[in-house]
Amino acid sequence: MRRIAGTALLASAFAAAPALAQQQSPYAEYQRMATESAPIELYEIAGEELWKKKQGPKNVSLEACDLGQGPGVVKGAYTHLPRYFADADRVMDLEGRLLHCMMTLQGRSREDASKRVFGNADKASEMEVLSAYVAGQSHGLPMRPGAAHSKEKASIELGRKLYFHRAGPWDFSCASCHGEEGKRIRMSGLPVLFKPEYARPLMSTWPAYRVSTSKIVTLQWRMNDCYRQMRMPEPAFGSDTTVALIHFMTATAEGVVYRGPGIKR
Amino acid sequence: MKRYLLYPVAAALAACAAPGPVGERPGVAPRDLEMITALLKRDFHERGQAKMDRINLDDVQRVCNLNADNPPEAVAKPLEEAQLKAIKFPNGSLMGDWKNGERIAQSGRGSMWNDKPGVQPGGSCYNCHQISPKVEAYGTLGPSLAGFGKIRGNRPEIQRYVYGKIYNAKAYNLCSQMPRFGHAGTLNEQQLKDLVALLLDPASPVNQ
Hints:
The complex is a heterodimer. By secondary structure, chain A is mainly α. Chain A has 2 domains: about 1-35, no CATH class; about 40-265, Cytochrome c-like domain (Cytochrome Bc1 Complex, Chain D, domain 2). Chain A has helices at about 1-15, 20-25, 25-35, 40-50, 95-105, 110-115, 125-135, 150-165, 175, 195-205, 220-230, 240-250; strands spanning about 85, 90, 185, 190, 210, 215, 235, 260-265. Residues about 1-25 of chain A have low confidence and may be disordered. By secondary structure, chain B is an all-alpha fold. Chain B has helices at about 5-15, 30-45, 60-65, 75-85, 100-105, 125-130, 150, 155-165, 190-200, and one strand at about 45. In chain B, α8 crosses α9. Chains A and B meet through α8, α9, β3, α11 and β7 of A and α1, α2, β1, α3 and α6 of B. β7 of chain A pairs antiparallel with β1 of chain B.
């Protein structure tokens, strides 16, 4: 039911934002049509089952996981992420926090809990379906990532600097592709994610079903795959670098109503 | 353990620059570059052919990062000259085979951690440029190159310019967004010549 409302919202977002990158891409119409048949709700259901499943050396579920709104509170939790967590003394995004709960609550090792964080078209990963479930419980709520604590402020500023930091054999930063308005790579529009008008429609739909690869993808995957294409070495999953970038872009989209899990090209 | 190293890094980062206004580029100081490089060295690991030395900045990257890609002329000129001097121009004609050039321009593979080492990379040229007008799936980050040789001809000076520009775009415009394909070792001499032919050969679809 809500997916139908979401579809209408998505469609109207494309129609109402002619200046935005999606509009320049011939994929926009394809994407709009694909929205209507995407299996994102199945991932959310799988994620809810996994959330409640007893696992790990301690044989407990994730139901007592504190996503920032108190142990077990899932509703609305995603809209306040990334944020500072005093128990870990660091800023975490959704995926980093899920990993933290798998380790602390379920007693799993970092290696075990993060050995297959990115799935494929045949089988989504635990992290992906859990992300879809938790994020889905924030559908329709405004996004307000943590921005008050000194470490949250530092994380956002670090993300801003990382966004423009050129390095690697091809001298790329995020802004090499996502820096100027109205540009494309091949046929794909390139959102300028340090500007709110671009960050808002994009950051409010992760995680998402990616039509071109028939799989669900998360923000940690997006950071990882961009660095791959930038010809850089690989960032660690949930590292402060990737969290800071996600934090910066989410803070740039601040206030937008979360309407995911969504659909990507 | 390693994690504790960052917090001084992040705290110092926040301290040395006031939060920037939303939607704008940050100011970057030399200290920021040191801290970001240290952070990336801690947070990244080598994978496949993507080794950790890729995180180190050279003079060009350093100056462009410090000046939001717009360094003062007095800073940019000597660096551009040094980059130009380092280009290895082959003797004789610089025109290779435009058909190979088209394949190289189409290929977006190469130098990534999941690319097989030893397989010759492509140039990802269509990702950013219109080249052959027959190819509709082209990017717009760089200027259109359709009709490039038709307009300019293909005399030796033009060949030399195109070869040099693809070899090292930073020799002509220090903070160009275009990778330094020869300088970085991505494309070899024959591939660079084939791309010159793609742009300049009268028989190339670019010039039809």
